[in-house]
Every structure is written in structure tokens, then in C-alpha cells.
Amino acid sequence: MAEILDGIRIRDEIQAELKPRVERLARAARAPGLAVILVGNNPASEIYVRNKVKACETLGIRSEKLTPPDTIATDELIAIIESLNAREDVDGILVQLPLPAHVDTRRVLEAVDPDKDVDGFHPLNLGRLVSGRPGLRPCTPAGILELLKRYRIPIAGRDAVVVGRSDIVGKPVALLLMHEHATVTICHSRTSNLAEVCRRADLLVAAIGRAAMLTADYIRQGAVVIDVGINRISDRGQAEAIFGHDPEKMAEFDRKGSLLVGDVHPRDVARCASAYTPVPGGVGPLTIAMLMANTVQAAERRLGVCSASG
Ligand code: GUN
Fold first, then answer.
1. Could you list the residue range(s) of the whole structural domain that residue 147 is in?
2. Are 193 and 253 contained in the same domain?
3. Is the CB of residue 295 less than 8 Å from the CB of residue 118?
4. Sign of the dihedral through C-alpha 21, 23, 29, 34
5. How many CB atoms lie within 10 A of CB 244?
6. Whether residue 271 sits in one domain with residue 151
7. Domain-located, residue 299
8. What is the mean pLDDT of the chain?
């Protein structure tokens, strides 16, 4: 029976450890402050930002949401970021992605003060990640490593295969696994014999954004599988094709009109893997927990308060 790697439990553990650090900061100086910029009205981004603000409230982190319209120009957005960079009470700045097509995302991300870059997307922090120096790490990859460590899943010497080469997940998680001494292969849409490469993995990370694409053919018996995908399906035929084996899930589809599914086939991963992250409830909750961790870390550095308890 495969072990389910419970992201909600690990998120709660991480947040419980952060709480005394936030309280210590509040006693010694002030509560940490996070500014979130949400441009326009992308419904998925609105949900993500709402959850980030809620997590701040739970922990006692002061949050501030800025919501410029989707007509904003790149230079205007950069001016907002520069004013947040200059503010003493803001420790973390997060620009929710994706930005509207006319906005130059690269220039915007480069405008964030690297010391306040709690998403870890600034080139300076990415360079620190590449060279293994301390710095703010991208949240989803950092959450995956945290999950593996807390479940004591060995990484050193294992064959890790990462499917997906995005700047936000694929590339940084591959680097973090390599720093932990895994032998890492990065696959993408043009990889030939993808299933064959994936079957070599002791540790398979799926971050491609295609519902249930990795089936039994891609999973070595006994592999550990980390599913980063969050795909919403609202077509009943597609839901039936993926969840036909699971009457409870189909009942949920009929109640809600849609279901979330990862990049890995839920039936096959339960059959083939030794341990895996479910969707929902696996990697998703860890992204926000690591955002909170990065915000606390940035505040401790800026305020000169060390993280030891007491
Ligand atoms: N959009 C999707 N994932 C992320 C993330 O981790 N951070 C930000 N800022 N935007 C995102």
C-alpha cells in the first residue's frame, strides 16, 4: 500500500514552527510585513492571493494587498514596487503571476529588492540557488524538499527525474535535488522516450500542467512520486476517463461540476508508487507555507532578530 505524503500535515507543522518566530519578531521589533500585488482579475490568481493573505492572518504576519487594474503599464508597476522596496515596514514583496501580456514580467521581477524577494524569482536569488549559496528560494520547490526531508525520504544517490522545465518549479527543484546529491534528469515536451526516462526514476517530480498525463507506463514500481500539477477538469467524459474507478470522486464531480487532478494519473500512482503526494492536499499547501517561511526569514534578516527560539 503506497504511503500518502500529506502536505496539509507538513504545512501545519511548518506553520506551528513559524508562529513563535513571528511572535518573537513582534516582541523584539514588529510583526513581519508582506505586500502582495495582484494585477487585474484572474480568478485563479484571486484564489491564490486570498489563501496567501489568510495564511498571513493565521500566523500574525501583517499583509497588504495591492490591486492595480490590468491596464497598468510596466513602468507604473515598477514604481509601485520601488515604493514598497523603500518602505521599512515591508519585509516581503510578491507579484502574483501571470501578469497581463503587455507587461514585461522580467523587468517587473528584477525591480523587486532581492532581500524582499519572498518568491525567490529575482535573478540574484536564482544565481544564489544555482551556486548553492544562502538566499530566498522559490516556494514550491523549497516546499517539495521540505516534504521529502520531513518524511525522511532519501535523496542522496537516488535517480531523480523532473518532468517540466519552468523557471518557477522544474529548474529550481532540479537544482535543489542536485544540491542534495541526487542524480537529476530534466525532461520536457521534446524529450524522446519520456516514459522510458521516467521509469528510471527513484524520485519522479511531475510539473507539466497536463491532467493525469503520467500513467503507469511512466512510474517505476516503488518510486516516490511528487505531483506538482493542479488541473481543473470540468468535462464529465474526461473526469470519467480519469476517475471512473472511484465512485466517490465521480459523486464529487456531479456535486461540484469539476474536479482537481494532478499531472500523474491518480489510480496508477496509488498502484505503482511506494509514496506519493495527492492532489489536492499534497504540494499545494506547502507553497504557501514556504512563502510564510521566506517572509519570516526576510524579516529576521532585515530586523537583525535571529531565529533561535526564546
Ligand atoms: N503563480 C503561480 N505560482 C506562483 C507563485 O509561486 N508565485 C507567484 N508570485 N505567482 C504564481
1. 139-286
2. yes
3. yes
4. positive
5. 11
6. yes
7. no
8. 97
- Domain match, 280 and 211 both: yes
> Catalytic amino acids?
52, 96, 119
CATH number at residue 82: 3.40.50.10860
Task: Please report which confidence band the pLDDT of residue 308 belongs to, taking 50, 70 and 90 as the band edges.
Answer: low
Q: How far is the CA of 79 from the centre of ligand 1 (A)?
A: 21
Please tell me the residue having the least CA distance from ligand 1 atom 1. Answer: 97
Q: How many domains does the chain have?
A: 2
259, β-bridge pairs: 233
**How many angstroms is it from 28 CA to the middle of ligand 1?**
31
End position of a domain, from candidates 116, 151, 181: 116
Which amino acid is located at 40 in the chain? G
Under a CB-based contact definition with an 8 Å cutoff, are residues 92 and 32 in contact?
yes
| Residue owning grid cell 500513467 | 215
**185 shares its domain with 112:** no
Tell whether the model's pLDDT for residue 307 goes beyond 90. Answer: no
Q: Whose CA is nearest to atom 4 of ligand 1?
A: 97
Residues forming a β-bridge with 183: 159
Q: Is the CB of 119 under 6 A from ligand 1?
A: yes
Predicted confidence at residue 310, as pLDDT, reads 42
pLDDT in tens, 34-82: 999 999 999 999 999 999 999 999 999 999 999 999 999 999 999 999 9
Work out the pLDDT band at 127, boundaries 50, 70, 90. very high
The pLDDT of residue 306 is 84
Find the 125 Cα to ligand 1 centroid distance in Å. 16
